[in-house]
């Protein structure tokens, strides 16, 4: 059993592409299948090496590895062989019509209230007509003659699916410059590399009908592939995602400091009958069932991702965070702040609070007097997790303050923030000298 994720390196991959990658990787893990990463770079104008590198980096960031990988531009000889096979069997036929001629034909058919399907005029061309066209300097491109019937398959997500081939134009598989189109290259790769399951976006539904027909023309047995078409992911406003706008690219999420585990947990279950939960890749894989994916389009909701990100961060052990924390940050620091960080970028701020030089706001005269009194009651070193309690007990006894009046001015003076991690945990990390200095500044 083998699955594949086959992105085109034409931009930064977005959360919609990632959803497909995750679905394939989870399905492969669940069923012990091989997972192939194929770089679909047959479109030479739009493909860029830097995007291929970027998508490998993005998948690795998500924690998705692959068992084998290749790019289509390395297999051009295999496509050339398939092209010859299809020419020999008469399934590929040369065409000479220009874009303008085709557009005029389409318009005429629409005026006659006929579906705008290619009329196969070139299929009826005689050998002499062809020789004449070539003598006039025309170079053919090649269309695949589709079968007449209906192609049907049991889609793991969409259920029984059908594509009526006569309502589709014969697809161009080879351009006039001899380059192959994705439609053919993809079938050749899937057949020759032993792919068994194709999980991809529903934008490929019609393609699937065509590609089944091509596969069978190349000798594949009926039912050779199992298909699952997952609905497209839309943005919050219901718009289409595109590699051309990178707002919801994985790169942007990474730069925003979102945890990759949260992204995987969210995308694995978004638009399915299972609620997104902060689970590891292995946990997600043991329960993953593509049949539970809904048939309707799902919307990516940043608030839901953030909520999940918070849960993921709150559970993270220090060992998983060590490389991401500011230099010098300790386990005690991580355990103190992890309940209060939504994004990795906030960690730097809390690290400044405990180990750096924040300047707290100056408080009014009455609070200033209170803070100086608190300063005079600061316990001696060493400090530990009990120090906050013994200090505030002593302040309570000396000032008669309690509740918010007791704690709030201290928190603001020491952290510069109204809210945050437990003071009990922060205080020993800040240390005596820093605490004393901040109390003095806030009391000025
Ligand atoms: N919005 C989306 N939601 C879910 N899946 C998507 C979405 N857009 C593309 N895909 C899927 O992502 C996979 C990778 O496809 P591909 O790299 O061709 O993406 P694309 O965004 O359609 O790119 P391009 O604009 O370059 O054609 C395919 O399975 C495709 O169906």
From TrEMBL:
EC number: 6.1.1.17
Keyword ATP-binding: yes
Pfam families: Anticodon_2, tRNA-synt_1c
KW Lipoprotein (keyword) present: no
Enzyme class: ligase
Any one GO BP annotation for this protein: glutamyl-tRNA aminoacylation
Gene3D superfamilies: 1.10.10.350, HUPs (3.40.50.620)
Record domain Aminoacyl-tRNA synthetase class I anticodon-binding: where: 372-442
A GO CC term attached to the entry: cytosol
Residue sites binding ATP per the record: 243
Residue interval(s) of motif 'KMSKS' region: 240-244
Keywords on record: Aminoacyl-tRNA synthetase, ATP-binding, Cytoplasm, Ligase, Nucleotide-binding, Protein biosynthesis
Primary localization class, coarse: cytoplasm
GO molecular function, one term: glutamate-tRNA ligase activity
Catalytic activity of the protein: tRNA(Glu) + L-glutamate + ATP = L-glutamyl-tRNA(Glu) + AMP + diphosphate
Motif ('HIGH' region): 7-17
Domain of life where this protein originates: Bacteria
InterPro entries (alphabetical): aa-tRNA-synth_I_cd-bd (IPR045462), aa-tRNA-synth_I_codon-bd_sub2 (IPR020751), aa-tRNA-synth_I_CS (IPR001412), aa_tRNA-synth_I_cd-bd_sf (IPR008925), Glu-tRNA-ligase_bac/mito (IPR004527), Glu/Gln-tRNA-synth (IPR000924), Glu/Gln-tRNA-synth_Ib_cat-dom (IPR020058), GluQ/Sye (IPR049940)
Protein location: Cytoplasm
Domain Glutamyl/glutaminyl-tRNA synthetase class Ib catalytic: from-to ranges: 2-305
Subunit structure: Monomer.
Family: Belongs to the class-I aminoacyl-tRNA synthetase family. Glutamate--tRNA ligase type 1 subfamily.
Function: Catalyzes the attachment of glutamate to tRNA(Glu) in a two-step reaction: glutamate is first activated by ATP to form Glu-AMP and then transferred to the acceptor end of tRNA(Glu).
HAMAP family: Glu_tRNA_synth_type1
Name this protein carries in UniProt: Glutamate--tRNA ligase
Gene this chain is encoded by: gltX
């Amino acid at each position: 059993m083998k699955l594949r994720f086959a992105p085109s390196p034409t931009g930064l991959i977005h959360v919609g592409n990632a959803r497909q990658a995750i679905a394939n990787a989870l399905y492969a893990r669940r069923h012990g299948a091989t997972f192939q990463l194929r770089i679909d770079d047959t479109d030479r104008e739009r493909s860029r090496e830097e995007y291929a590198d970027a998508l490998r980096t993005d998948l690795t960031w998500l924690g998705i590895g692959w068992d084998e990988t290749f790019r289509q531009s390395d297999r051009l000889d295999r496509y050339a062989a398939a092209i010859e096979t299809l020419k020999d069997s008469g399934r590929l036929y040369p065409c000479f019509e220009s874009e303008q001629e085709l557009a005029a034909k389409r318009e005429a058919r629409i005026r006659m209230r006929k579906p705008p399907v290619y009329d196969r005029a070139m299929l009826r061309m005689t050998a002499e007509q062809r020789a004449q066209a070539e003598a006039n300097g025309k170079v053919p491109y090649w269309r695949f003659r589709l079968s007449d019937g209906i192609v049907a398959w049991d889609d793991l997500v969409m259920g029984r699916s059908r594509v009526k081939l006569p309502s589709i134009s014969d697809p161009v598989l080879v351009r006039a410059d001899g380059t192959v189109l994705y439609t053919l290259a993809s079938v050749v790769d899937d057949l020759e590399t032993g792919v068994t399951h194709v999980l991809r976006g529903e934008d490929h539904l019609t393609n699937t009908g065509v590609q089944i027909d091509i596969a069978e023309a190349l000798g594949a047995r009926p039912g050779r592939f199992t298909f699952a078409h997952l609905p497209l992911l839309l943005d919050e406003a219901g718009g289409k995602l595109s590699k051309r706008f990178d707002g919801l690219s994985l790169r942007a999420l990474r730069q925003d400091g979102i945890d990759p585990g949260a992204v995987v947990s969210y995308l694995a279950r978004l638009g399915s009958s299972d609620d997104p939960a902060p689970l590891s890749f292995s946990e997600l894989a043991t329960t993953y069932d593509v049949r539970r994916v809904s048939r309707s389009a799902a919307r990516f909701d940043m608030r839901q991702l953030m909520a999940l990100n918070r849960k993921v961060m709150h559970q993270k052990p220090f060992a998983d965070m060590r490389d991401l924390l500011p230099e010098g940050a300790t386990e005690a620091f991580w355990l103190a702040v992890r309940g209060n960080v939504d994004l990795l970028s906030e960690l730097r701020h809390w690290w400044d609070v405990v180990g750096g030089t924040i300047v707290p706001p100056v408080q009014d005269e009455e609070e200033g007097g209170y803070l100086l009194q608190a300063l005079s009651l600061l316990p001696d070193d060493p400090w530990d997790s009990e120090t906050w309690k013994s200090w505030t007990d002593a302040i309570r006894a000396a000032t008669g303050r309690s509740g918010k009046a007791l704690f709030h001015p201290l928190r603001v003076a020491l952290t510069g923030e109204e809210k945050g991690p437990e003071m009990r945990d922060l205080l020993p990390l800040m240390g005596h000298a820093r605490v004393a200095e901040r109390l003095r500044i806030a009391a000025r």
